């Protein structure tokens, strides 16, 4: 005989304090698609049960790397020095060094990747500036060498009130010819258009005026200078005539004066 007062073991007592209990034999009147199977159960977390949110303000900054900082610093210094005359050649060493350090920093994936890129860019720009200066220097040296190799006929002349010493060059600044004259000195030379020079200064007790002139084969005045007094000196150069215009047209007055035999001596 069955005890009808005994509760069914498969059906909990409705008075049992379990408000979330539902009879499994009955369909769920409020199905929750994609939600938790029962009320008051949390959604599963994709980060795991021990996930901690990041601190306020975002992740901490990347630490500094000596390699990347050095690459950037060397590159900036190389670029600044490259544009300074006379000392810019130092960037021939600093520029490539910055590029190498920056590349190594990128390959080794050191922190602060931007520092490595800055070092590479500034180092490359510094090296480019140095190469441009080098090309310009070579071009100017070629022009100077070409002009120095061209020669022409010039007349060197010095006129003074007393005794003076004359020193002149023709095709080389290292080969100098010296003469002493009184009153006037004149000689015709085959000199470089760049390296020809004429210098003179009073000697002894001479304190009068002193004038040097250089004229070309057509009589065009190329260079002239005047000074006076004890120890006065004057300098003329064929380089002054490279503009093609000279200082004046026509022959200089008195070029045919006596005493211009090239050996000095005699008053004009």
CA-CA gap between termini? 167 Å
Structural class from helices and strands? alpha+beta
**Structural shape:** rod-shaped
Strand content: 15-25%
- Average of per-residue pLDDT values: 77
* Shape-level CATH architecture of one domain: Sandwich
CATH topology of one domain: Immunoglobulin-like
- Quaternary structure of the protein: single chain
Order of helices and strands: HHHEEEEEE
Low-confidence stretches: 245-268
Largest pleated sheet: 6 strands, antiparallel
Give the C-level CATH assignment of one domain. Mainly Beta
Description:
This is DUF4190 domain-containing protein. This protein is 26% helix and 23% strand. The protein has 268 residues and is α+β, with helices and mostly antiparallel strands. Among the domains are: 66-146, no CATH class; 151-243, Sandwich (Immunoglobulin-like), CATH 2.60.40. Strands 1, 2, 3, 4, 5 and 6 form a six-stranded antiparallel beta sheet that branches. Residues 245-268 have low confidence and may be disordered.
């Amino acid at each position: 005989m069955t005890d009808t007062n005994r509760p069914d073991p498969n059906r909990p007592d409705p008075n049992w304090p379990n408000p979330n209990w539902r009879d499994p034999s009955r369909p769920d009147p409020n199905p929750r698609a994609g939600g938790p199977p029962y009320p008051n159960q949390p959604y599963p977390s994709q980060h795991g049960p021990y996930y901690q949110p990041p601190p306020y303000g975002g992740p901490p900054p990347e630490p500094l790397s000596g390699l990347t900082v050095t690459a950037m610093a060397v590159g900036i210094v190389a670029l600044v020095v490259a544009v300074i005359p006379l000392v810019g050649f130092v960037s021939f060493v600093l520029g490539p060094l910055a590029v190498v350090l920056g590349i190594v920093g990128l390959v080794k994936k050191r922190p602060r990747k931007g520092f490595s890129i800055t070092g590479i860019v500034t180092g490359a720009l510094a090296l480019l500036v140095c190469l441009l200066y080098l090309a310009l220097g070579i071009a100017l040296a070629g022009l100077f060498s070409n002009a120095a190799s061209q020669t022409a006929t010039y007349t060197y002349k010095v006129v003074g009130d007393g005794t003076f010493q004359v020193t002149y060059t023709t095709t080389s600044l290292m080969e100098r010819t010296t003469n002493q004259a009184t009153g006037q000195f004149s000689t015709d030379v085959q000199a470089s258009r760049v390296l020809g020079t004429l210098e003179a200064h009073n000697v002894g007790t001479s304190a009068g005026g002193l004038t040097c002139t250089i004229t070309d084969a057509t009589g065009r005045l190329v260079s002239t200078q005047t000074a006076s007094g004890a120890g006065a000196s004057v300098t003329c150069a064929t380089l002054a005539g490279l503009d093609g215009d000279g200082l004046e047209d026509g022959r200089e007055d008195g070029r045919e004066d006596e005493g211009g035999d090239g050996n000095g001596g005699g008053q004009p």
